[in-house]
Fold each of these.
Amino acid sequence: MKPKNCLIFGGSGQIGKHLIRKLTKNNIKVTVVTRNIHQKSLIIKTQGNAGYIDVVESNIYDEKKIRDLFSKTDICINLIGILFEKKRGNTFYNIHTLFPSLLSKLAKEYKLKNFIHISALGINDAIDSNYAKSKLEGEKNIFNNFPVSTILRPSIVYSVDDNFTTNFMTLLNRLPVFPLYYSGKTKFTPIHCSDLTDVIYEVIIKNINSKIIECVGPEVIDFKEIIQRLLNLINKKKLLLPMPLPIASLTAKIFQLLPNSILTEDQLRLLKYDNVLSGKYKSNSEMEYLVKNILTKR
Ligand SMILES: NC(=O)c1ccc[n+]([C@@H]2O[C@H](COP(=O)([O-])OP(=O)(O)OC[C@H]3O[C@@H](n4cnc5c(N)ncnc54)[C@H](OP(=O)(O)O)[C@@H]3O)[C@@H](O)[C@H]2O)c1
């Protein structure tokens, strides 16, 4: 049976917007939690038909309000994540470890059908990245608290308005020379946002529980190739310059002082690791297998 209501945290973001559309057009009602209802309400409400979307304002520390929302939902989906830390409690630990831990505890307490958490690909390997470590610890807490949870680990997620390509296109437009970290050889497996939301929908509809699923697109592509394709798209030619690591670290140290950093030291460390299937978990191309496996266990 289809769930009646999905509670979504972080639904005003890139993946959230596509997900709201996917769920509501398939007759699933959503309640979207945002920190700023005045700023985000229009973005959220315009993703689906009237009557299918509720928007609630809350911060991630307001347990009383979150409990109230859990008492009215069948499924919770957590899309909250940050790429760099900011002041006032916006740390990797609070957002990627503590908050998912709270949500999974509540998922158990309120007997939810599923808790779906969006983590990130490659976090097992990136042992010196605080981003990756906080995501990994969050995953461990989730499975300890609510073992039937489903964790999706996407590679880079792209769509018409994603931060990754739009930021890079802006930089490519403005900079005379573009730096290639690690010689541009780091590999990625970008997945389109609507393909990722299809996976989330399948997880909900087919009741896929207790799994980590790695989510990737059809091709493996290195950083240099991504930049070259973006240059083609904006019809520009730029010199792509391999940047020695000490200079890259120095620029990251300076960039991370900006309020919306384009590169931090932690991101630089993360960029060292290929973002490809690990082979240790099922991937989104094996959804049929996952469904069959679940049906035979029932
Ligand atoms: N996009 C990718 O390429 C990619 C790749 C791998 C993994 N992921 C993971 O997938 C999830 C969703 O990604 P996304 O690209 O859709 O994210 P996003 O657009 O950057 O943000 C999602 C939402 O999270 C909320 N949020 C951000 N910072 C917050 C904070 N400090 N406290 C509370 N809420 C905060 C915001 O909602 P409000 O402003 O409405 O509160 C925001 O709209 C994240 O966990 C991310 O790490 C994304």
Note: The two ends are 15 Å apart (CA to CA).
Amino acid sequence: MNFLASLKIFTSSYLHIFTSKKIMEKRSIPYGKQHISQEDIDAVIKALQLPFLTQGPMVKEFEDAFAQYIGAKYAVAVANGTAALHLCTLTLGVDEKSNVITTPISFAATANCVKYCGGSVTFADIDSETALLDFEGVKKLLEASPKGTYQGIIPVDFAGHAVDLEKFKKLADEYGLWLIEDACHAPGGYFTDSKGQKQFCGNGQFADLAIFSFHPVKHIACGEGGMITTNSKELYDKLLILRTHGITKNPALLQENHGGWYYEMQTLGYNYRIPDMLCALGLSQLKRADEGLTRRRLIAQRYDIAFEKAGSNFLKAPKNGEHAYHLYIIQVKNRKALYDSLQQVGIFAQIHYIPIHTMPYYRSLEKTPIRMPKAEHYYDQCISLPMYPTLTDEEQSFVIEQVIKFAQA
Ligand SMILES: Cc1ncc(COP(=O)(O)O)c(C=O)c1O
């Protein structure tokens, strides 16, 4: 072989090693990711050219389209999911005397919205199979306490698994409680009720109010954004006022009227508005919501089949409905080692969630530490694998291969 030919072979094999190393180095698969299309970008640009950057027509357009998608009568768009939760607790009159039951396995905001209003949070443990707030546990808690101890329940459609709200509604009615559904993970998810009807998350059939988030990893991404849905006109009217400083300009509601400019601040509200360009983005994303949901379910099915074969433990899908798969969670004994080993090959899994009652703030509120054995056991083993519509089959195969390799090592 002449010198030139051997140089060519050397260079090409060197380049091959170099490029595969580069690909390895560049591989970065997060647990969740937004998908921004050219239509999304065009919609935002169009909104920026409108006369209103906030309080303009895109807000109502987004609200109406979202209410229709979810199947609720009313929707109120707000700055983020946390603001949505806060407006819900304000609207339902939570105060220093209120005690509200929720799950320890959620994002902290689910519980914090009660604290914002000065109320107390009581955590009830989860169901180990689904990681949802355990209905039987809540029932026992209510049965063991004098009537009037609790004012409301906040169940969470955790990971995208729809809570059976029909059961919770019956229980809530028995004890005179309200229900806020935290549906941040579940637009498009549903459970089937006792009459065989599909009850979509946030449709307002059972919960007084439901909330959603448009954080980038959620089904609909606005950057920041949130939505409250309800079937109650009375609650809807209150929410609209509280979203804008407690101010109204509605002539029918004014106590006085000095002229066209006149407004009244009738209660203490906030500025929890969402700007028009974010609503334009949300509206454009909403058009692809079903497409994204279908892809999420396909990804979940592929994970299920692979992990079932390998004998790995994953959170079960609903028996009486359809999951929305915001998250795909498996449970493994040596979770930290799996998390670290995935990171080494560019897979950025995540943990959902550290139980809220173990957070220093919530611990500081208790004289003796409260224990939620099922939630704590779940936390020790849970890990959320990549789940988003643009995750490719090749990337998913790589994730599956790495998880199974770890489990079998
Ligand atoms: C279950 C749940 N509730 C509430 C929130 C709060 O939403 P946001 O981040 O939009 O304030 C989140 C967001 O991560 C969430 O996952």
Note: Residues 1-24 have pLDDT under 50 and may be disordered.
